[in-house]
Specification:
Shape: globular
Strand content: over 45%
Number of strands: 11
Number of helices: 0
Low-confidence stretches: none
Structural class: mainly beta
Order of helices and strands: EEEEEEEEEEE
Largest sheet: 7 strands, mixed
Length: 111
């Protein structure tokens, strides 16, 4: 079972991106899933978590701007990122309980 993250890119400040994290392989569903990010020279930091049947949770730095959601049929978790700031520039990683880490996807916010 693997996690495949996608959707990163270059966006201007104030813009939006939607990241996807899809589970492939023999798995019926994914449970707890989180997004993390790591900026150059900084430690990896938690961004958001979604648990089946639970309330999503967000880091203070993204609360009100980012939305985590899931599509169980597609075994995919999304991170909708709005009002992006240069400080959001980082490699974004997804993590799923029982599976582990996906590869990162680069998000660059710059004019």
């Amino acid at each position: 079972v693997q996690l495949q993250a996608s959707g990163g890119g270059l966006v201007q400040p104030g813009g939006s991106l939607r990241l996807s994290c899809a589970a492939s392989g023999s798995i019926s569903s994914i449970n707890a899933t989180a997004w993390y990010r790591q900026a150059p020279g900084r430690q990896r930091e938690w961004v958001a978590t979604i648990i089946s049947g639970g309330t999503p949770d967000y880091a203070d730095s993204v609360k009100g701007r980012f939305t985590i959601s899931r599509d169980n049929a597609k075994k995919t978790v999304y991170l909708q990122m709005n009002s992006l700031k240069p400080d959001d520039t980082a490699v974004y990683y997804c993590f799923a309980g029982g599976i582990g880490w996906g590869q990162g996807t680069q998000v660059t916010v710059s004019s």
